[in-house]
DNA sequence: CCTTGAACCTGGGCGC
DNA sequence: TGCGCCCAGGTTCAAG
């Protein structure tokens, strides 16, 4: 579930613990996730103070006081959790409940903050996540961040911008919106949700929202508004938490209950008065959920 | 250029 | 209880 709203929720959940804390040690319990951890990562971050937690698209950015930024992507199943208080192997009050997935705790930030020590633990069963580091001054040149499109919540995303990107494209709307070079941060869930809100069929060619003169049509205006709204609503709801995702504070999310299309195959469409039934199709190897009755 | 499919991994759910 | 199969939030390659 780590699409943009979930990563933003994680960022907000981690910030109170991490911002201002000193990294006493970064414990890497294996040498790689999806990719190897960068050479010298542990040495470079040890003793550094965390000045801010940021986010770009689906990437969490940990800014250190020496100008280094740790870049973290959660992949499909990555999550962080916080353990407060001293570490103790002996039975007693300082022991925390250990999850059965402890074997997937791959990276542990041992922190010293104003209120004592704590650990921020990165867990990722599938190991599709990865970490990198960069100089903050050249962050946008990092291979993972280079070329990313605008954030869906910012002013850069407009109907005119999308019209420029979609002009002449036979590509289905679903795939076009998943392209991180066009908009950065949307994933399978929120693309389905945004198209449902827009009453647009995921299979429609992207160019059908562009006029002959290259201007956005009214459906494009609606699509852009829907993207903004669905992301804002999801962030507000604290991010969704399907399956193995856990929010930074250890609690489960709740937004999954308000999906309108995603994962609702064969269930009634929630568009008022529609009466249709949500269908599932496969596009580019990914499930797409939509209502054939009201999405045209 | 475009689009699709496989690959990277583990675990949960389901049918038998 | 167990086995085999299918499915899953993402991204990057290779191939057509």
Strand and helix map with partners:
Blueprint: H1 4-18, E1 22-28, H2 41-45, E2 50-56, E3 59-64, E4 68-73, E5 79-84, E6 105-113, E7 116-123, E8 130-135, H3 159-166, H4 173-178, H5 188-198, H6 218-236, E9 279-283, E10 286-290
Antiparallel strand pairs: 1-6, 2-3, 3-4, 4-8, 5-7, 6-7, 9-10
The chain binds a DNA duplex (16 and 16 nucleotides) through loops.
Task: Report what the structure shows.
This protein is an alpha+beta fold and 296 residues long. It folds into two domains: 138 residues, N-terminal domain of MutM-like DNA repair proteins (Alpha-Beta Barrel), CATH 3.20.190; 132 residues, Helicase, Ruva Protein, domain 3, CATH 1.10.8.50. Helices cover 22% and strands 22% of the residues. The chain has six helices and ten strands; from the N terminus they run αβαβββββββααααββ. It has a four-stranded antiparallel beta sheet with strand order 1-6-7-5. A four-stranded antiparallel beta sheet has the order 2-3-4-8. β9 and β10 form a beta hairpin. α1 packs parallel to α6 and α5 packs across α6. The chain is elongated and about 60 Å long. The two termini are 27 Å apart. About 5% of the residues have low confidence. The protein binds a DNA duplex (16 and 16 nucleotides) through loops.
